[in-house]
UniProtKB/TrEMBL annotation:
GO terms for molecular function: heme binding; iron ion binding; monooxygenase activity; oxidoreductase activity, acting on paired donors, with incorporation or reduction of molecular oxygen. This is Cytochrome P450. The keyword Secreted does not apply. It comes from the Bacteria. Belongs to the cytochrome P450 family. Keywords: Heme, Iron, Metal-binding, Monooxygenase, Oxidoreductase. It comes from Saccharopolyspora karakumensis. Pfam families: p450. InterPro entries: Cyt_P450, Cyt_P450_B, Cyt_P450_CS, Cyt_P450_sf.
Length: 417
């Protein structure tokens, strides 16, 4: 039997400079012309770009596997090309193994667990804004350190080292794989994370506290306690998921609010609108743009002939702008409701940190608007991530504002002497 060719073939590389310059336009074209298409980039993969394809694939774990395999090289299975991270539980597991691990993660990321973190989140947001508030000018991206500090602190690690975790885990998914930054993350920063986190797990095994790491040590998976390797696997994923995504959401939202002063004023006048606005920011900015799966068997999928072992990229960002699902999808309507966006993914792997991410984003946007309501962004000075393929966002957002007063009695972290 002759093999069906993979088609239609498109010119698409989500890690290219061309894509970074206009990822919204690139996905619009794909969605309109061939929502399930093959590209030869990075060894070849399918790109799923319309809402129905992404919806169907993300709910079909039987055909679209998240498990680590030899297809597409070595490393983290859910991105293309794969990145050299440790095995990540539960995101690289399919059912049935997946379920009991996800239950253990849900226990520390549930809405109730996140409500207990309210004061911690507020403290970090206040402390980060304190660091810049008296100056009248700063890089707004600095405030984006909050999610990393909260995540690291929640796991019981030293929050003052939050930047080292960002340099490691966020860089692997936001810097071009051929850059010096990426090589530093892979060869220096990630090994440091592994050494530090493994030492932390060992210390908590000796002496548990009330942090999330101790909760994993006490949790049962299939009627047994987890090994250090399993716990490390979960912690590295939580750090990886926690440090960059919310920062990307908030910084993009703050730049948009600067460009749309009328909408900014509405949120200043009525902060209770922020919750719904955050959902719209999630939809249009889609911090995690696209993640991957591996096809488990030859199959026909929405007109395309998939083969076992093919890699597939599901674009949440593109699905989130599908006009068949959202009226005027390129309009940012901060009152849009309902808003069935897929920014947190869909199906069994839907983001375990969504409640934490939302809580941090609401607190950060709320406090910036309250304490720095007149911030002016130097738009020409904005530096985007050079690669917008997996995570979209900004590295730097110079801004000025009317100075204000610090609120915490002392800085969050000891000052370097
Ligand atoms: C705005 C913030 C966030 C966005 C946009 C986001 C996005 C996503 C997406 C799209 C997925 C689906 C992965 C897949 O289907 O393969 C996911 C999964 C996940 N996220 Fe998030 N995330 C955010 C915040 C967080 C935070 C704060 C944490 C934890 C500290 C976190 C931890 C996780 C974990 C553990 C998974 C894997 C769940 C599983 O495999 O069952 N995320 N996230």
């Amino acid at each position: 039997m002759t093999e069906q060719p993979r088609c239609p073939i498109v010119h698409f590389d989500h890690h290219s400079a061309e894509h970074a310059a206009d990822h919204v336009g690139a996905y619009r074209e794909l969605r309109e012309e061939c929502p399930v298409a093959w590209t030869d980039a990075h060894g070849g993969f399918w790109v799923l770009s319309d809402y129905p394809s992404v919806f169907e694939a993300s709910r079909d774990d039987d055909l679209f596997s998240s498990a680590r395999s030899e297809h597409g090289g070595e490393g983290l299975a859910i991105i293309i090309p794969k990145a050299p991270t440790a095995f990540h539980i539960p995101i690289e597991l399919d059912p049935p193994q997946f379920r009991s691990y996800r239950k253990a993660v849900n226990a520390v990321t549930s809405p109730a667990a996140v409500r207990r973190l309210t004061d911690v989140i507020d403290k970090f947001v206040t402390g980060f804004i304190d660091e810049i508030i008296e100056t009248g000018e700063a890089d707004l991206a600095f405030v984006a350190g909050v999610p990393a500090a909260v995540t690291v602190d929640w796991l019981g690690l030293d929050a003052s080292e939050y930047k080292r975790y960002v340099d490691a885990m966020h860089t692997l998914v936001s810097a071009p794989p051929d850059s010096a930054e990426y090589a530093h993350a892979r060869d220096v920063a990630v090994p440091w994370v592994e050494k530090t986190v493994r030492a932390h797990i060992a210390a908590r095994r000796e002496q548990p506290t009330d942090d999330a790491t101790s909760a994993f040590l006490a949790a049962e998976v299939d009627d047994r306690k987890m090994t250090d390797d399993e716990i490390y696997s979960i912690l590295e994923l939580l750090i990886s998921g926690g440090v960059g995504t919310t920062a990307s959401l908030v910084t993009q939202a703050l730049v948009w609010l600067y460009r749309n002063p009328g909408e900014r004023q509405r949120l200043i006048d009525d902060p209770s609108m922020i919750d719904v606005a955050v959902e719209e920011f999630l939809r249009v900015f889609s911090p995690t743009q696209a993640l991957a799966r591996t096809v488990t068997r030859d199959a026909e999928f929405r007109g395309a002939h998939l083969r076992a072992g093919d890699r597939a990229l599901m674009s949440w960002a593109s699905a989130n702008r599908d006009p068949r699902q959202f009226d005027d999808p390129d309009e940012v309507d901060i009152t849009r409701w309902p808003n069935k966006h897929m920014a947190f993914g869909l199906g069994i792997h839907r983001c375990a940190g969504s409640h934490l991410g939302r809580a941090m984003a609401r607190a950060m946007i709320g406090q910036v608007l309250e304490r720095m309501p007149d911030y002016v962004v130097d738009v020409d000075g904005i530096v985007r991530y050079p690669d917008q393929g997996t995570n979209a966002g900004y590295h730097s957002i110079p801004c000025s504002f009317t100075p204000g007063k610090r609120r915490l009695a002392s800085p969050l972290f000891p000052r370097a002497s």
